[in-house]
Specification:
- By secondary structure, the protein is mainly alpha-helical.
- It has ten helices and three strands.
């Protein structure tokens, strides 16, 4: 796991508390690496929305906000359904097999929250890739990577992992039975239900 991934994991586990400014020297000591990989990791995390500017050239871990969580799931629901609809007729057995491999990996107990978020995206990506719309795919990937910041709640207090996996399995079954309309409805529900639960949880926790 590279430094960027380690920082993400520690943010999700609250080992690096939200609202805390991050200093390169402190992180260099904490992770046992020089300041150069730390600097590069902080730039990458800032670009992905994991960090925000703080002070002069500094960065800070932002709080989780229900408005951001709502924006992310609303955008994901619209754009992923567009991409999935474009891809549907082009999804072949090899794509389904790839999606199933990620689904199986998601059931392993000893994987990090960051890895779980990445595997979740890779499952969906395998089903969207056949659309061959790289620009839209990059935007959707970016939204999913930002949403990983909220996984600690979805797989923690909300206990949504099992429900999510059941819906993934159902989505595969609908693809295999060539039921496009039902698959599109399920995908939208899959994204919106988890997103609305998270949004309400954050509202009530504020």
């Amino acid at each position: 796991m590279d430094v960027s991934q380690r920082i993400k994991e520690d943010i999700l586990k609250n080992k690096l508390p939200r609202g805390t400014p991050l200093r390169q020297a402190v992180l260099s000591d904490l992770y046992g690496v020089s300041r150069i990989p730390i600097r590069d990791a902080l730039l990458s995390l800032k670009a992905e929305g994991w960090l925000v500017p703080h002070g002069k050239a500094g960065v800070m871990i932002p709080d989780l906000r229900w408005q951001e969580a709502e924006d992310l799931y609303l955008m994901r629901a619209e754009l992923e359904c567009i991409l999935f609809e474009m891809a549907f007729e082009q999804i072949h057995d090899k794509d389904v097999a790839k999606a199933r491999s990620y689904l199986s990996a998601l059931d392993h107990e000893n994987i990090s929250l960051v890895s779980r978020g990445e595997l979740n995206w890779q499952f969906h990506e395998a089903l969207y890739q056949p659309a061959n719309r790289p620009t839209l795919q990059r935007v959707v990937e970016g939204l999913n990577m930002q949403a990983v910041r909220y996984l600690g709640f979805q797989f923690g207090p909300l206990g949504y992992h099992e429900k999510s996996q059941d819906q993934h399995e159902e989505l595969i079954s609908l693809i295999e039975s060539n039921n496009k309309n039902a698959a599109l409805i399920l995908l939208r529900q899959h994204i919106e239900k988890a997103g609305s639960l998270l949004t309400e949880f954050l509202k009530n926790s504020g």
